[in-house]
Amino acid sequence: MGIHKIIILAFILVLHTEARPISYSGGTTVMYQSDSMSNSVYIHYSPTYKYSIGIENVDDKFFNKNKNYLRLTYLINRKNTDISQRNLYFQSGVLVDDADGFFYGIHGDWETRRWFSGFGYKDIKSSFGQDYADQYIRLGVAPYVGDYGDLHTWVMIKTKKNSLTNTKSTYPELKFFKGAALINFGYSNKTEWDFHFMYRF
Amino acid sequence: MNKILLTLLLTSPLAWAEQDHANMNDHSHEGHLHDTMVDGKNLDVSAERFDTFMEGLTDVNVAIVSVKGMVCDFCARGIEKTFTRDKNVQKIDVDLDSGKVMIAYSKIKEINFKEIEKQILSNGQNMSDLQVLEVNNNE
Question: What CATH superfamily is the domain A3-200?
């Protein structure tokens, strides 16, 4: 299924859904991410639980470029149950100084306090003709279930694929989560370290 | 711990239904706070957690909110932030394990089902039930 069909399908799903926050309403989030392709700092604000707007600075290691994206993430669908939550998001970004450079995609997750699964697909258009796609699938389990405020730990496995480098790698990840802070890191002998830090105000 | 007199005011998702409830003096707090309410509903709150929550509180109304989709600390943190913006909220406790949120309001605040439902939804979760306890502490 092409990305355009997926996005159309995602918007159709909006008609049947209830919604939930990107962050909680009024929440500001700071993220730092680093992997073999790029380092990025992303700050976003959620006016409501349905969407967030932000700016991302990307140090692109592959093209040796520094880019600034204006970003919008929109919650397409959320399903809450007594023990779980399922989300589907639309994500997009456009370069501040070059409207020909942009990306869009979807990502989703389903989680309970014990189990986690997630996926993402992002189509990146560059103004110099090097378009590519990034995709991942992630599965995880919490070895113990903590209460609010405890240190939470997740053991995960992630498979990611990048069409630019034509690499596909599967590797383990660890996620630690306490209060407003989250740290996630993994290592693959193909793509080396994958690090993610998030703090929510 | 102070002797606690609890008069239970019960609300259902469909309507407010206030009913006087049993005197809680000398009521055992082992196990659950109160096994069954007058309408037959279970008040599924850990007695130990409730006692800890009530420490330092006097003359409050406590809303016990059942929440769907509260699966992580970010959800809990959002709910906490949302309710503590209300100056009439004296204390809040989020129990991820049971999916319950306890909110202690000043007596002057009238607890409103629709308002709490809206606040929970503004954080992205859904409220499935609300029970209200009027707590009068006797020295």
Answer: monomeric porin ompg (2.40.160.40)
Model pLDDT for residues A61-87, shown as the tens digit of each residue: 888 989 999 999 999 999 999 999 999
Which chain B residues are closer than 8 Å to A21 by Cβ? 78, 123-124
pLDDT (tens digit, 0 to 9) for every residue of chain B, 139 residues total? 444 444 433 333 333 333 333 333 333 344 445 444 545 556 667 888 888 999 988 889 999 999 999 999 989 999 999 999 999 999 999 999 999 999 999 999 989 999 999 999 999 999 999 999 888 765 4
Each domain of chain B, given as residue ranges in start order, spans 3-138
What is the interface pTM, i.e. ipTM, of the complex? 0.77
Select B3-138's CATH number: 3.40.50.300, 3.30.70.360, 3.40.1010.20, 3.30.70.100. Answer: 3.30.70.100
Q: Closest to A177 (Cβ–Cβ): which among B73, B99, B121?
A: B73
Residues of A in contact with B74 (CB under 8 A): 23-24, 200
- Say if the Cβ atoms of A24 and B82 lie within 8 Å: yes
Q: pLDDT for B54-78, tens place per residue?
A: 998 888 999 999 999 999 998 999 9
Q: Retrieve residue A37's tokens.
A: 């392709």
Task: Report how many Cβ contacts below 8 Å link chain A to chain B.
Answer: 80
Between CA A119 and CA B35 the distance in angstroms is: 43
SS (H, E, C) chain A: CCHHHHHHHHHHHHCCCECCCCCCCCEEEEEEEECCCEEEEEEEEEEECCEEEEEEEEEECCCCEEEEEEEEEEEEEEEECCCCEEEEEEEEEEECCEEEEEEEEEEEEEECCCEEEEEEEEEEECCCCCCEEEEEEEEEECCCCCCCCCCEEEEEEEEEEECCCCEEEEEEEEEEEECCEEEEEEEECCCEEEEEEEEEC
Question: B-chain residues within 8 Å CB-CB of A78?
Answer: 69, 124
Domain boundaries, chain A: 3-200
